[in-house]
Amino acid sequence: MSPTTDGRRPRIVVVGHGMVGHRFVAAAVERGLTETHDVVVLADEPRAAYDRVALTSFFEVGAEALSLLPEGAYADPRVELRLTTAVVAIDRATRTVTTAAGETVGYDELVLATGAAPFVPPVPGKDLDGCFVYRTIEDLEAIRAAAAPGPDGTRRRGVVIGGGLLGLEAANALHQLGVDTHVVEMAPRLMPVQLDETGGAVLVRHIEKLGLTVHCGVASTEVLDDGTGRVAGLGLRDADPIHADLVVFSAGIRPRDALARDAELEVAPRGGVLVDEQLRSVSDPRVWAIGECAAPAGVMYGLVAPGYAMAEIVVDTLLGGSAGAFTGADMSTKLKLLGVDVASFGDAFATTPDALELVFSDAVAGLYKKLVVAPAGPDADGTARDDAWVLLGGILVGDASAYGLLRPMVASQMLLPENPEELILPESRGALQLGLPDEAVVCSCNNVTKRDLLDAVDVDGEHTCEDLGAVKACTGAGTTCGSCVPTVKGIVEDYFASVGKEVDRSLCEHFALTRQELFDVVAVHGYRTFTEVVEAHGSGRGCDVCRPTVASILASQLNGHVLEGETGALQDTNDAYLANIQKNGTYSVVPRIPGGEITPEKLIVIGEVARDFGLYTKITGGQRIDLFGARMEELPLIWTRLVDAGFESGHAYGKSLRTVKSCVGSTWCRYGVQDSVQLAIDLELRYRGLRSPHKLKGGVSGCARECAEARSKDFGVIATEKGWNLYVAGNGGATPRHAELLVGDVGTEDLVRYLDRFLMYYIRTADRLQRTAPWVESLDGGLERVREVVVDDALGLGSELEAAMARHVDTYFDEWRATLDDPEKLSRFVSFVNAPDVPDPAISFGTTRGQIVPEPGAPTESVDLGATIPVGAPR
Amino acid sequence: MSPEHLVVVGNGMAAVRLVEALVAGGWLRRGGALTVLGEEQGAPYNRILLSAVLEGTHEERATTLRDERWYADAGVALRTGVRVVAVDREAREVELASRERVAYDRLVLATGSIPTLPPVRGLVRPDGSLHPRVHAFRSMTDCRGLTDALADAQEGGRTPVRRAVVVGGGLLGLQVARALGARRGQHAVVTEVVEGADHVLHRQLDRPGAQVLTRDLARLGTTVYTGARATRLVASPAPDHAVGVRLDNGHVLATDLVVLTAGGRPSTALARAAGLEVRRGVVVDDTLTTADPRVHAIGDCAQHAGRVSGFVGPAWDQATTLAARLLGEERAYAGVREVARLRATGLDVAVLGDPTDPQGGDVVEMTNPIARSHRRLVVREGRIVAAALVGDLSRVGLVTQLFDRGTVLGPHEAGDLLLPETRSGASGPADLPDDAEVCACAGVSAGALRACSSLEQARATTRATTGCGGCAPAVRALLATDPPAAAGPAAAPTDHPVPAPTGGTR
């Protein structure tokens, strides 16, 4: 466009600096219109354009973040932005506008971008103190002031008139401000323009769950006066009035076209400057209108996207282009209202002839998804297409993730996939441990159900825990006895896998490896210390998860002394003192009694030791004798006596083989078919000291009567006429499991070979603190897989596993004997490092049934080792 | 219990099940006697299969439940073709139409239901018989009459049957309509169904479900008129058909045959005359006993806990429960939840419980007119309390199991049950053609986004995602992907001038 006749650069005056006005200026700058034109923006608001669409977030992010022009001015010097400068008149004859201050500004092109104003229905009392509209930052500030709790802290009550898109945003604002919020909508459902009946109902359920109250199909009659000119409530037709301290009108908007009317520009019957497809006023070619104040073909568009399109078309036209024409807009919307995804697009109400509705509605999950489809017309060659469908529109409530895909499908007329249901599937849903019912209590210590766990990790829920640790902290599951942790982990991981979330299977924050990977790493590199492992594959100094795990892996592979070198400091409390700490801070001592067979001489030694040290004695479930009440500093003395009598450590403290229980077998029993005692002793001696992911228990029964309860063990052997049946992966405890038959009727040699392989395979591949039963369960293929590996040697690992076990057997030594022989290790066994001879005074005993027991009145919490007993403390 | 003479009035499906259970449980071995008085001639048959006989997929004898020989061998006195006209509770006798009296120690009423005739003028002739072109469809006799009518016409005696109108759009009506439309080895009969309610199967299905079914019927050649009542049998409007059925909307359907399937009511006349409590059916308690401890009622004629069932499942359950009680077992009938299946070629409908009860619970449903399926679950406190499956019965086993066991489902599990198990992976943003507009706010096409290598670049050069942001996931998926193979004649992005009324896509 050429300069004006007087040689002056032509001037564009823009009235209004809302989102659309700003878009116009930005496009003018960007596309070079300012090369030829000056732009003057006259805005009545005190602040430059801001993102009104995101107004709801004002309370969270503040005005600054919403601003579209944070610098307050355009970088282009040919654009002048004048705020707080209301235009009061247009003189089309002289091509000038007059500001409120009386100044006149001449224009060559006038662009009206005055936007719209909230519509306040003419109800009595609409101007009372406490009535608001929801449109500008200033409105929100006023609402915030009125919404502040009363002097006694009482919550304010508020009513929003209008249950459309804007009304719900206003309701959200009130709700955020802690106001008890009601929404009153005249139509029979919420968002009547966008949603159908079912979609509206699902939205109501979501909103009411947040504590808001929704009244649909209700007309407001008047705003009630409390007698002092303040709002007391809202009167309704045919319903009780709602008591309220504030009323927000959000019942639609009306174009701000008063300026245009006064200037005798033609306006549409329902308001808005009547413009042609180039957004040029039909009355004056020098005047343009864009955004909500414009009515192309008589229709006003209350969304920002059509406004932006209009702005671009005017810039295009002023640049001399001719392509731009506004012929209507896609009124599709997707929003998050009160935390609920809502989208409506295309022919959402199936008004097209032959349209069909494909509906998924899930009141339980709060989902509603509707696709409006129609048969596809003939293809480009004119061939009719049977069973081909196109998408016309749809409604999504509760999950609008498909919107981004679906809306373009409407415009592109692409054919729908064979089963369009897939389009409204959630991203990915799998079988969520369907075996376990939701009400199943997973953690019995803390009464946590599977549902609680799923709620905690639900990506759309309120907790959205990200990993196992967070789930444990959030629900308490697995924090007491810990026996449920693998199940919890499985449920959580299955869920994450089902929602397509990356599952972090790493051991802890220090190692991005699983236990199995770590085991392999140690094996390949031959590491011998924690320091080597953490330096090469981890970070930091380790924690109480990775340190004992690495210690256990090192112990499994190297079979060194658990208190050797730095390894000692890695161990859990029990391993650290080679004894089990009890509730009053004393320890228990369990010498190994293989197979439960013991000579009278050894029994007498145990009796004498117990008597001499004043220990409580009890027969354990594993056919041995537990001596309780030993102080830490007494442990070496007690063990000296025991070791001298030929006893060795029973590893009751370790994640290692405990006992192999046996029945009396064919030697004495009339029914026994094999010598179960001999086998039990052989197995216990073979696997003693074997460090593993969790404790291991075994049993051997001499006949099918199963007196040794072998099938409740990690490995159980039951004699048959032809040899032995080997059962694996049983346990007692919180979730008892029967061991299942791995292989039947094998000779002793084969039995030992399979058992070697089974145990080593478990040690290599199980997760930390995962017993054999959940381990087998966690394997793809379960026991069948174990059988393939162990019996059929499908992986060719057999000889390797056997060799590893042989190495263990060859290098076994008694930990307690080795400890007694080593003054350095012995030095750990004192209560106070600075006063080695002082026993811990906190320890006291009472007497029950003729034996000592922990003092009933004494504190029952475990002793805080870290604070008062720093000696060799694990951390 | 001392040996008793048990008399069963009725020889339908409930009665047979009762007799079978009593015989198997040793009623006769223990010295009891058993007499069955059946009004219909011949051996009892499976009424559910009548439409299969009509269709021609089953021979008539294949529907026989137990033949006369079985009764004779078991020692049960079976008398068919006898009508009981009265029960004398004082004398403990029933009276037959022949005036013969049969004594009983214990009486079981299993009289079933009788079809109701809709109020259509001209159905019944002055002598009380049905118009020759009109057939009921309840008994084997009705079924034979209908098949004969179809065959007669074929032999050329009368106007051949080319069209039929079925009055009643319930389970039976749809079964008959489909049977007529799919007659084995015969020319098909063009069938129309007239249903007074606003959709078919209105006792089992909601409207969207019924619409799916109606579309399916239309595809199979059966037209359904809903919200329309037949009011009068008139002369055929077309010369080549026998009669006309006038609807209350004034329309007249030309037809050669009218089949009435518009429901039935419990047959309670005997009980009522005997002074037993009758509401909709003969009222029985949890032991299936009437107020008279020697009189029981089971099946379609009985009303338990306010409900008359009309389905074979509850009837059989009542029969086995009563038999167990009579054999000395402590057992109560707790009422079963109803399971209804539509038995019709090409139509799959299964209904559990009452899915139309608006107070039933939360509704989880999928309506897919393209796949012609509708699946609706009603869930209360995590349990499926009712379900309707139309068109796709692939999950009926699982749903029935969960329904029967009252398994508690998780918040998404009910929805999962309705969704396809696997996605074909056929459709994602990647399949959008280049000219598909992805960002509506900025007017950016898929092709323009494919040309961008990062979200930042897309933002900067196309302004996509800067408006409402709703397109962001699709935009991310499109960045620097190849166009789909079948994107149209000009698939390459460079060949495609981006439609840019706004210039926003430069």
Quick gist of this model?
With 875 residues, chain A is of the alpha/beta class.
How are the SSEs placed, and which strands pair?
The complex is a heterodimer of chains A (875) and B (506).
Chain A: E1 11-15, H1 19-30, E2 38-42, H2 58-66, E3 79-82, E4 87-91, E5 96-99, E6 104-106, E7 109-112, E8 116-118, E9 131-133, H3 137-147, E10 157-161, H4 165-176, E11 180-185, H5 197-209, E12 213-216, E13 220-225, E14 231-236, E15 239-243, E16 246-249, E17 253-255, H6 258-262, E18 273-275, E19 287-289, E20 294-296, H7 304-318, E21 333-337, E22 340-346, E23 356-362, E24 367-375, E25 389-397, H8 403-412, E26 441-443, E27 448-449, H9 450-457, H10 468-475, H11 485-498, H12 515-525, H13 530-537, H14 546-558, H15 567-570, H16 573-577, E28 580-581, E29 587-589, H17 600-613, E30 616-619, E31 625-630, H18 635-644, E32 657-662, H19 676-687, E33 696-701, E34 715-720, E35 723-728, E36 740-746, H20 748-765, H21 772-778, H22 782-790, H23 798-811, H24 815-820, H25 823-826, E37 845-848, E38 851-854, H26 865-868
Parallel strand pairs in A: 1-2, 1-7, 2-3, 7-19, 9-16, 10-11, 10-16, 11-12, 18-20, 32-33, 33-34
Antiparallel strand pairs in A: 4-5, 5-6, 8-17, 13-14, 14-15, 21-22, 22-25, 23-24, 24-25, 26-27, 28-29, 29-31, 30-31, 34-35, 35-36, 37-38
Chain B: E1 5-9, H1 13-24, E2 33-38, H2 50-55, H3 68-74, E3 77-80, E4 84-88, E5 93-96, E6 101-103, E7 106-109, E8 113-115, E9 134-136, H4 140-154, E10 163-167, H5 171-181, E11 190-195, H6 207-219, E12 223-226, E13 230-235, E14 243-247, E15 252-255, E16 257-260, E17 264-266, H7 269-273, E18 282-284, E19 295-297, E20 302-304, H8 312-326, E21 339-344, E22 347-352, E23 362-368, E24 373-380, E25 383-390, H9 396-405, H10 413-418, E26 437-439, E27 444-445, H11 446-450, H12 455-462, H13 472-478
Parallel strand pairs in B: 1-2, 1-7, 2-3, 7-19, 9-16, 10-11, 10-16, 11-12, 18-20
Antiparallel strand pairs in B: 4-5, 5-6, 8-17, 13-14, 14-15, 21-22, 22-25, 23-24, 24-25, 26-27
